[in-house]
Amino acid sequence: MQPSASVCEARWPLASTHLSHADAYVLSLATLPTSYAASASSPSHKIDLFDKSSLRLIQSLPGHHVATTSVRAVDHILGAPTRTLISTGKDGSVKIWDERSGSHSIKLTSLGNTSLGLLSCDASPTGDLIAAGSEFQGQDSFILYWDPRQPAVPIRTHSSTHSDDITTLSFHPSAFSPPLLLSGSSDGLLSISNAIEDDEDETVIHVGAWGPSVSQSGWYTHPDNNTSLGIWAASDMETFSLWSDQLDQRYSVDIRNPSVHTTTRTWVTDYLISCYPSNNGGIKVYTGSNEGDAALISPPTLSSPTNALGNWTLHSLWTGNHIGIVRSILPDEENKVIITGGEDGKIHLWKDDSLFDMVGMVDIQDDMDDQDVDMDMDTHLDRSTGMRNGRKRERDEGEESAGKKARFYREG
């Protein structure tokens, strides 16, 4: 990996705070119109809301009484263009929150089965369809769909898409019909489904068999063509992959291998925190160190055969203020800041001076179908599985089925 010509390193945050419960740590972050939401682990399970400029605690939402497993900010609910917080829990519900009342305005329930823990959720671009993914129970795991106007019972349930915990869901960002849902699971599969198809045998449109347990995934646009979409995915084994919008695998790598060792700078990745699409196209990859630092890196540009073996690029560092693992990171491009949350229970607000060079952004074209791509790695990955011997993340009982982002070794 090579450092950008304008690497930014921030050592002092603009503001800092901590969760309302001293013994909890940050599971995930989301941005709302006037606040940042931070989901807390056990024993809290609350969702704290912090002022965007000062990180002052505004209020604490009660979350889910068993465990809050995911939080997500969506742009529409029932067609209303209001950015809204939704969450899932081990209590088997999806909650749509009303900041003004400090409580949920809508509670979606899973057939009265409170023992069916929900791990992931998303809303369709128009907000008239909510999807949630369940943990594996008995012989099934479920994707449940609700019309928010009828919260008591899902309008459809799919049980054959995955055969293990459904850890990540993401609707296609375009509001076309039928709405498409990307899902990822501990079974090692990524799937794209027709979200309004009642026949389970007909719902799955594309499947990508990666191999390792999928912990995160999402959509992004290509930097030179904002109408062309790709898919990224991350696994429990710190592997990272890129896919076409029809789930043809383009790329798979151990995220710990790209590193920087120069006379002036060293960066070694221990784990992937998360990825976000850039407003200008492309994908931002955020990684962390066991010492509590975070970095923004980008893959090589794969569309050029001459750069197929190119380097990753290091763009930014945020260092020296977390103790231990950085659990979550949230770029706020509108305000040019970035928010980090860690296992130390702290939340930091940083200035984001990243000069994100589009040359370093990933751009995968169809002509990559037959091209085998390796990277600046010590070990080549099996492209069919993305597997290699390495550290796995232990799943925290109670809440961390929510994206499975515990940064420990998996036992067994």
TrEMBL record:
The keyword Cytoplasm does not apply. The keyword Heme does not apply. It holds the Pfam family WD40. PANTHER family: WD REPEAT-CONTAINING PROTEIN 89. Residues 369-412 are annotated as: Disordered. This is WD40 repeat-like protein. It comes from Agaricus bisporus var. burnettii (strain JB137-S8 / ATCC MYA-4627 / FGSC 10392). WD repeats lie at residues 85-107, 319-351. Keywords: Repeat, WD repeat. PROSITE patterns: WD_REPEATS_2. It comes from the Eukaryota.
